[in-house]
Design brief:
binds 5'-deoxyadenosine; single chain; binds iron/sulfur cluster; 5-stranded mixed beta barrel; OB fold (Dihydrolipoamide Acetyltransferase, E2P); Rossmann fold; 7-stranded mixed beta sheet; 21% strand; alpha/beta; 14 helices
Amino acid sequence: MENTLYNNEVAFEIEPKVVDETRQGETLTLEKKNGLRSNGKKFYIESYGCQMNFADSEVVASILANAGFDSTSEFLEADLILINTCSIRDNAEQRVRYRLQHLGAVKKKKRGAVIGVLGCMAERLKEKFLEEEKLVDIVAGPDAYRALPSLIEEAETGQKSVNVLLSREETYAEISPVRLNSNGVSAFISIMRGCDNMCAFCVVPFTRGRERSRDAESIVNEARELYKNGYREVTLLGQNVDSYRFSKDEKLVGKKLVDAKYDESVINFARLMEMVAQIATDLRVRFSTSHPKDMTDDVLHTMAKYHNICKYIHLPVQSGNSRILGMMNRTYNREWYQQRIAAIKTIVPEAAISTDIIAGFCSETEEEHQDTLSLMEEVKYSMAYMFAYSERPGTVAAKKFADDIPEETKKRRLQEIVDLHRKHSWELNLADVGKTFEVLVEGVSLRNEAELYGRNSQNKVIVFQKKNLAPGMYASVKVTDCTSGTLRGEVIE
Ligand code: 5AD
Ligand code: SF4
């Protein structure tokens, strides 16, 4: 399946189900309701954007289920229609607006339904949303989901209701997310919220607020519970997982804990990952996203030590040129990034590396664009999310720099990046032919019911004959064939 993103953006082909940070507009339905008392009302939720948003929708579903709502995958049936939005690029916002207009038109016909906008766009636009989109009744930012039941009550009386307060503490730690549209095998666990990095292009620090880490015990408990329920893979999620730091020590709680790096009571990301990996040897652990400035050798050694920590690192580079990286405020340069890649290749040699790249950032010259291509040549990413720069209101870049690269040039540079990545992906896939991988079976192939698909530790999708295997089982699969997006193989055990 081609994972087509927004018009000028391209991620890579994976088959058959895309589970990545660029899923969009996916409808989520409750797996089961655990006998909670119904209030007779149904909610429908649609999510856009990153994995964090999808994980948040699962928290929202849990809060609504506790308030007595049932879920529906049919928005026409819903009393409450929620859209969990993304602001990362302008076209992500446009897409949500089109969708709202459509849902609004339907709402007009079916009087009584309440429409709520959640997530980053809610936070960015606040009350303005209600003026701009008259059909919206509720605006709730990413830290306001506990208030949803009362916001809904208010909206039902005909009032518009808004809560966009950002919190320094909210992690929804004890809320057990309701797994939505789950394959029953892999699940996301939010380990932190917000972001304290101020990348010049990025709206996230403004929409999701300050960085805070979730209680380690609640994370481990959630993973253990998932394992008990048959799940065999968890992905630990955060905007910047490497800066995860948690302590129960009263003196340290609330502080960013950076200075307390070496304090015994502080759990850092390497330690957290180890705690989750120790739950069971057949529970796979993944994580996303790593920031090159924070990814320590400690994390890499922990990855190398545990077979069940997947050998896959998403390490967004954004640009291969040091001047542009400086302007982006990424706080590393090309050499630092190269040195991090070298560390991965030494400590976890079998790791696959993926990235995010922005084409045509403010003032980027042709030579600087070439630096991005040459870095790609060096690293050879197994997967890449590639974007044309989109200026976001309120960001440092919008305030300080002119968005001066013509759209045509941005598009052409993006295409060159995409073409090179496709070539690398094809080469890497070809190099996998003949190799045998341990694959966690995730589901039945959409194209052929006699086939299953799963992923290897390196996060590559492999399709193979069903035999007597089922989702949640591990299989040894020898790769026999490939396209640039998918590996095909045969089960050897
Ligand atoms: N324009 C283009 N791409 C962006 N990203 C974030 N902000 C922007 C922007 N303003 C990309 C970055 C980031 C990914 C999630 O989205 O590559 O890593
Ligand atoms: Fe945005 Fe940078 Fe934070 Fe990622 S690390 S969310 S790109 S500010």
